[in-house]
Amino acid sequence: MTLSPSSSRQIEILRQGSGAYHPVDPDGFRHYVREHKNRALQPRLMTAREAVDRFVADGDYLTYECNYLMRGPNAVFHEIIRQGKKDLWIAGKFTYVDVALLVDAGCASKIDCGFFLSAPAVDRALKEGRLQVYEYSNVIMTLRIQAGAMGLPFLPVRSFGGTTGFDHSGAKLISDPYTGDPITIVPALNPDVAVIHVHQADIYGNARIFGTGISDVEAAMASRKVIISAEEIVDTEEIRRNPGATSIPYYAVDAVVSSPFGSYPGTCPGYYGSDPEGVFEVFRAVMGNGVPAYLDKWVRPFETFEDMLEQQVGQAKLDAMRANEVVKEGYSA
Amino acid sequence: MTLSPSSSRQIEILRQGSGAYHPVDPDGFRHYVREHKNRALQPRLMTAREAVDRFVADGDYLTYECNYLMRGPNAVFHEIIRQGKKDLWIAGKFTYVDVALLVDAGCASKIDCGFFLSAPAVDRALKEGRLQVYEYSNVIMTLRIQAGAMGLPFLPVRSFGGTTGFDHSGAKLISDPYTGDPITIVPALNPDVAVIHVHQADIYGNARIFGTGISDVEAAMASRKVIISAEEIVDTEEIRRNPGATSIPYYAVDAVVSSPFGSYPGTCPGYYGSDPEGVFEVFRAVMGNGVPAYLDKWVRPFETFEDMLEQQVGQAKLDAMRANEVVKEGYSA
Amino acid sequence: MTRAEAFSDREVAMCQVARLVEDGRTYWAAGGGTPLYSVLLGKKLYAPEAQYITEDGVIAPEPMLPFEPMMTMVASRAVYRALAWGTMNSAGIHAQLGYMDYGVLNTLQVDQHGNINSTFLGEYGGAGRRFGGPGGADTIAACCWRTILITDQERRKFVREVDFISSPGFLDGTPGARERAGLPEGTGPWRVVTPWAMYDYAPRRLRLMARVPWVTVDEILAECEWKPLVADEVQVLEPPTEEELHLLRTELDVRGQTTDAAGSWITWDGEKYIRA
Amino acid sequence: MTRAEAFSDREVAMCQVARLVEDGRTYWAAGGGTPLYSVLLGKKLYAPEAQYITEDGVIAPEPMLPFEPMMTMVASRAVYRALAWGTMNSAGIHAQLGYMDYGVLNTLQVDQHGNINSTFLGEYGGAGRRFGGPGGADTIAACCWRTILITDQERRKFVREVDFISSPGFLDGTPGARERAGLPEGTGPWRVVTPWAMYDYAPRRLRLMARVPWVTVDEILAECEWKPLVADEVQVLEPPTEEELHLLRTELDVRGQTTDAAGSWITWDGEKYIRA
Questions:
Q1: What is the pLDDT of residue D260?
Q2: Interchain proximity C94–B236, CB inside 8 Å
Q3: Above pLDDT 70, what percent of chain C?
Q4: Sign of CA dihedral C67, C69, C70, C71
Q5: Chain A contacts of C68, Cβ < 8 Å?
Q6: Which residues of chain B from 161 to 200 reach within 8 Å of chain A, CB to CB?
Q7: DSSP A216
């Protein structure tokens, strides 16, 4: 029944990838938390403009949750493009159009690839050397973020071994000191900044997400700077009424942005369905060469995302999206 | 910004504990799941007697969630004692009286120690060589279970290094291949059987837990055999109405036991408060030499836990416990 | 069940996969599109007790059909009436634990050992064309017990060695190659389904096992750059039924998104099926 | 604030710890009992914006006081009006991430380097007495930035080297010893509080820094088997106030569970405090 620990003094590294990866530094992350994360219940409500200005820096490693079509943090996403952030390194898991938008807008120069829609804009950037891609997969990316969210330097994983991506990544295949079997380990990811759209948050950042997700909580806990955009700002009394519904605790959050319809043209499940026209439009733009025109129509002319919603989308369409979301059960606390 | 992977071919093991540990075998666990876990939606409702008879074997590694005083799976716990299971190896995290009860009842012969109430019965068993203790801590135990729940052989951790417990455990201190810094890793724990008391479950095992907990979900996912006892059996339609409230999915569960007041004399938060008299009685029994008398009064004379509740506790007290639980908010879906 | 008289290549593939769906088993359907539609078709017609998850960790939903365009994950209709809601990590971890019987994938390129390329055609880093990457397929192919791959029957898709292994098959095809790479023991590719054919592995090398009535083995092999093994007896697959197509067209792929660029159209001329 | 005139040894210790509680900081209070009561006392009287968690992952509750007997975790009154509910792993992980400023612990035995024994008195595995083990204290002592230890001022509790390190202090006291053992950088013991005294570290060795008015430095040192360093100027601590004791007795330790076996009783005789 029991197994004696092996007395070996070494663990073999059987194979390792040669890809660059965002630096692993759990102690550095801890020091950052100690110095910069506000453990007091002080309001952190601000505009998307202020949040992006204060918390997204050129060169940052950025993760955003879900994607442009599904509960994406699109108000903040637009603001990043509007402010012309540069040289972002993107956690490209579960993305569709997002990577192409950020790359063609000149914001992103490195992608850790889980999945993104291959598009002319991405191809061009690759060929012109404006973009570097590192190879992972969706779950490997979210497990890297989970490792970061646990304060660990790495995590063993059961996939990714044997792939070509492995060789172009930060992964290592080691001999498991407990079983002797080969096992892959991947470097933890602690992004500089996470951008997450949620259903409800209070002014301190206590946030509720309903429905399924990708790695919202993990990204919030793993990232140095966390921007939450919320469909609804709720009272802290409401948070305290049902603590089981809190997905992200305030102390991980740096900015809360009130952002109704913040996932337009995508869906915010339980609150509104997607705008199929808007979805097809961004798809067509990305799959063709239409990103600049798309940004010139939907992003750049507006001071704020709210202005865009008001002037470009209009209340009637927003009302229709809301009405189109017939499923409500499970999307409240 | 980027860090080149080290080209070292080895990871140093700087120090390792000499304690025995439950065997690490993630592939074996997978095969068990494939062969024995029912992925079909077929009812698995049964009595505590049947569940313990079928799913708790002598010599099993057993974890139970919470403890005898707080949402403990006491109906199943009593049944284990009643059926005279032997040689159990117990995950002794966040326990108070539980370890002493199981040891003095002759059921347990090995404990992985996080915390348990030191008691004469435990001392005696240790001195007589009937009991072996392996040293961990509460969080290290729940992280070991989390490693098991992720299908991994081990997990890095940020505590436990430097302790004497480390030397008497299955932990290893290695040189982190990503930072070069020393980091502790601990062996995953995949118990043979987990016993968990929940607020609500359907007949297939989809289970809801409200309030805080220890490692309920992790234990369910990490364990080969899983017995759920539930305050309420709810319809699967109710589960489907709010899938966000499901803590444990049916396919991890082998037995569902309907067990109202199944945590007596402890509390099931939101449903009933504890019975202070009953709590003091078990404390006194454990801290003195009263375990046999306690079992002879509360466990052994009864065919079932329900019989005990009816004959020994009585409806009036149960009603009072229910009435005494004034906090309801947050304890429903 | 009535044999249908007109359908597309891709509809054929989805119907074949649907018939592989087994009651009481768990399926991880990659992304949206053909894998998800195939599993749903199988569940609705043949195996009501089959259960599935998707990359957003939804467990055993009863989706409100049809989906909104492209909204097959993190969308209320897609995750409707699930038994549990989760995350990408919960989906990945349940697969790591061995809870997922089958993974269903589609891809760009597959090789003789079932390795999958969805990343790069050409020499990686050199000239060539970049694609989207593995997405969830890497974990599906690594951790589900068996994987079913859906792809088109095109020469360039069946190659000796993929240019880039995005998701693992049997790797170099030697016994234990997956285990030596750290992958869970006993897992691997199980079937490849195209509009023309079905393949299995014998034991770790792709083998043509069945064909549709309207193409010959030679025609299939002509559409494989690297020739697979061929079973001693190549079975003949049943064409789609009216029931399958009705469900597919009215509840699943209602906008023809997956069948848009779905190859040829096959029709019954009164005596036999012919490809347009 | 009114100086109280009668209180127990253990009440003194809890009041001293309460005064260390800082606004806007996070506290992980071990188990129930004195650590939790001390933090709550400090929060209610001095630092309303201090927040705490316990081992069951509750974040910043506003508990309904008093607790039911022994019900300080996984109980509805204890976790009432929290900002979030979690698990033991979420508590441990948030501490691993550096979110917990202070850990508050009690223990059996502490040594010159702040190492804590709550497992075994005597030679481990030989004769001696077994205790309950570290519980959550190992992770608290490893991962919170600073730890505050509450214990009794008894000779056998202050030793040169603990018989068993259940939870880490500065280990062998050499610079970097914790980091070499894999513990997070820059963490460690900060204060030890007894009913008679308060200690800090200079820098990694226990140092007597303050005493209560009714005992002398010599009396304290007599109750240390291994003598700590002594600060050049040993400060004098303020006795408990009526406000502190009122809150402690009416809302927190209402049944006297923690003060039951709480050492001596101290009273004001009109001129000075005397120990009974």
A1: 52
A2: no
A3: 98
A4: negative
A5: 267, 273-274, 276
A6: 170, 172, 174, 176-179, 181, 183, 185, 187-188
A7: H
Which of C62, C80, C88 would best serve as a mutation to test chain A binding (most A beta carbons within 10 A)?
Answer: C88
Token pair recorded at residue C19 = 């018939």
φ, ψ dihedrals at A151, nearest 5°: 75, 25
Kindly state the DSSP code that residue D86 receives in the 8-state scheme: -
Structure tokens at D43: 């929060």
All residues of chain C having their beta carbon less than 8 Å from the beta carbon of residue A66 are: 74
- Tokens of residue D192, six digits: 């030890």
Q: Which residue has the tokens 């197509």?
A: C245
Q: Residue range C21-26: average pLDDT? A: 98
For residues A269 and D198, give the distance between their C-alpha atoms in angstroms, rounded to a whole number: 55
- At B255 the three-state DSSP class reads strand
Q: What pLDDT sits at residue A3?
A: 42
Query: Does the CB of D166 have a partner CB in chain B at under 8 Å?
Result: yes
Give the mean pLDDT of D263-275. Answer: 92
Q: Which of D83, D96, D180 is the best mutation test for A, with the most CBs of A within 10 A? A: D83
Residue C1 pLDDT: 77
Asked whether B and D share 3 or more beta-carbon pairs under 8 angstroms, the answer is: yes
The pLDDT of residue C259 is 55
Between chain B and chain C, are at least 3 CB pairs below 8 A? yes
Sequence-distant (≥ 6) Cβ neighbours of residue A310 within 8 angstroms: none
D185 at A interface, C-beta within 8 A: yes
Helix (H) or strand (E) holding D192: strand D188-193
C-alpha to C-alpha distance for A333 and A324, rounded to whole angstroms: 21
**How confident is residue B1, by pLDDT bands cut at 50, 70 and 90?**
very low
Task: Catalogue the long-range contacts made by B297-301 (C-beta closer than 8 Å, 24 or more residues apart).
Answer: B298/B78, B299/B78, B299/B81, B299/B82, B300/B81, B300/B82
Residues in A closer than 8 angstroms to B153, CB to CB, are 156, 176, 178-179, 181, 183
Asked if residues D103 and B293 have their Cβ atoms less than 8 Å apart, the reply is: no
A4 pLDDT band, cuts 50/70/90, is very low
Cα A206 from Cα A236, distance rounded (Å): 8
Distance CA B8, CA B119 (A): 50
CB atoms within 10 A of CB C56: 25
Q: With touching defined as 3+ CB pairs under 8 A, do chains D and A touch? A: yes
Residues A126-165 have pLDDT tens digits of 999 999 999 999 999 999 999 999 999 999 999 999 999 9
Tell me what pLDDT residue D258 has. 65
Handedness of CA C3, C9, C10, C14 (dihedral sign): positive
Residue A221 to residue D145, Cβ atoms within 8 A: no
The residue written with tokens 């990359």 in the block is C55
Inter-chain contact C76–A269, Cβ cutoff 8 Å? yes
Could you report the per-residue pLDDT of D20-75, keeping only the tens digit for each? 999 999 999 998 889 999 999 999 999 999 999 999 999 999 999 999 888 999 99
Portion of chain B with pLDDT greater than 90, in percent: 96
pLDDT at C260: 52
Neighbours of A83 (CB within 10 A): 15
Q: Which amino acid is at D131?
A: F
**pTM score over 0.95:** yes
Mean pLDDT of chain C: 95
Radius of gyration of chain A (CA): 21
Q: How far is CA A180 from CA A162, B57, B87, B163, C96, in A?
A: 18, 28, 28, 26, 18
> Looking at the complex, does the CB of residue C3 fall below 8 Å from at least one CB of chain A?
no
Query: Which two three-digit tokens encode residue B42?
Result: 């077929």
Q: What are phi and psi of A196, to 5 degrees?
A: -135, 130
Is C21 in CB contact (< 8 Å) with chain B?
no
- Comparing B91 with D254, the larger pLDDT belongs to B91
Longest dimension (CA), chain C: 54
Rounded Cα–Cα distance for residues B64 and B196 (Å) = 6
| Furthest C-alpha separation in chain A | 71
